[in-house]
Amino acid sequence: MKTVKIDARGMHYTPLNQKIRAAVADGAEEIILDNILGQRFIGDGLRGNVRIIVNGVPGGDLGIFMSGPTCIVHGNAEHAPGNTMDKGMLVIHGSAGDAVAHSMRGGKVFIKNNIGYRGGIHMKQYEVEARPILVVGGTAHSFLGEYMAGGLVLVLGIGKDKAMTDRGIGSGIHGGEIIIRGEVDDYLLGTGAKKFKFTESDLERIAPTIKNFCEQFGYDPAEFLDTNYTRIGPASSRPFASKYVWE
Fold first, then answer.
1. In a 3-state reduction of DSSP, which class is residue 208?
2. In the chain, domain spans
3. For strand 229-234 and strand 193-196, is the pairing parallel, antiparallel, or unpaired?
4. Nearest 5°: phi and psi at 6?
5. CATH 2.170.120.30 fits 3-239, yes or no
6. Distances from the Cα of 58 to the Cαs of 19, 176, 211, in angstroms?
7. 3-state DSSP: the chain helix, strand, coil percent, rounded to 5?
8. Which of 12, 68, 206, 230 stands 20 to 30 A from 178 (CA)?
9. What's the 3-state SS for 137-163?
10. Within the chain, which residues score under 50 in pLDDT?
11. Residue 102 and residue 80: Cα distance in Å, rounded?
12. Of 119, 91, 90, 88, which is closest to residue 103 (Cα–Cα)?
């Protein structure tokens, strides 16, 4: 395996990303980034099967428009990792900020701990070929899955009394599904969101995702392979139809 190491200490994000692109163009299969501290746009628009190891805390829009690579972060991440990501995987061994997986349209984003507000906002899906997946090991703040149009958001609530305690879950959702471990109080649902019974069939569908997530972070998947979940989806394909005037 061809590995390239880059020490990013004190480096502006523009030359850093130029170095990453040059390494990919030169055939690197693995890129190790040391001393990352807030540099933005790491992995932006990258294609192929390269593996990027980030040691530190990357800045906003990690993996934006990324299509194929795997990016593993040993630390936390700032806002919007996975923004409009098309394919590939982000694995974050910590927490992340707001708007995680914003407009994501394919691939996987796995967060070991917690995320901020508006996680999964406007995630979208193309039939079955391009189905984005966001898994949060801990909890998420308000407006999880806002305006969601497709894909899967899964919140496991590891180490929490309740996986979700913030309001606005699925506000404006018109596609896709949000699955939360345990019970979800009705008052936490956003406009246009509805709870559905979680079945054995649902568990069978998401079991591969649970196993994949647990594999990344060293959890035992058996702990999560039951029907103790709440599934949330759209009550209607047009949740705000009554807000408009039609002639």
1. helix
2. 3-239
3. antiparallel
4. -130, 125
5. no
6. 16, 28, 26
7. 15, 30, 55
8. 68
9. CCCCCCCCCCCCEEEEEEECCCCCCCC
10. none
11. 6
12. 119
Distance CA 38, CA 12 (A): 9
For residues 113 and 244, give the distance between their C-alpha atoms in angstroms, rounded to a whole number. 39
- What pLDDT was estimated at residue 244? 58
Q: Which two tokens stand for residue 44?
A: 């932006």
pLDDT at position 128 is 77
The structure tokens listed for 200 are: 């054995």
Q: How many residues does the chain have?
A: 247
Token code pair at residue 3: 């590995």
Exposed, middle or buried, 118 (CB in 10 Å: 0-12/13-18/19+)?
buried
The CA-to-CA distance between both ends of the chain, in Å, stands at: 63
Torsions phi, psi for 94 (to 5 deg)? 180, -145
Instruction: For residue 129, count CB atoms less than 10 angstroms from its CB and return exposed for 0-12, middle for 13-18, buried for 19 or more.
Output: exposed
Please tell me the distance from the alpha carbon of residue 206 to that of residue 137, in angstroms, as a whole number: 14
pLDDT at residue 50, rounded to an integer: 97
pLDDT in tens, 115-174: 999 999 999 998 877 899 999 999 999 999 999 999 999 999 999 999 999 999 999 999
Q: Do residues 24 and 45 lie in contact, with contact meaning Cβ atoms separated by under 8 Å?
A: no
CA–CA distance, 89 with 81 (Å, rounded to integer): 11
Structure tokens belonging to residue 191: 């406009």
pTM, 2 dp: 0.95
Q: What does the DSSP assignment read for 65-103?
A: T-EEEEEEEES-B-S-TTTT--EEEEEESS-B-SSTTTT
Cα gap 219→208, rounded to integer Å: 14
Report d(CA 149, CA 191) in Å as an integer. 14
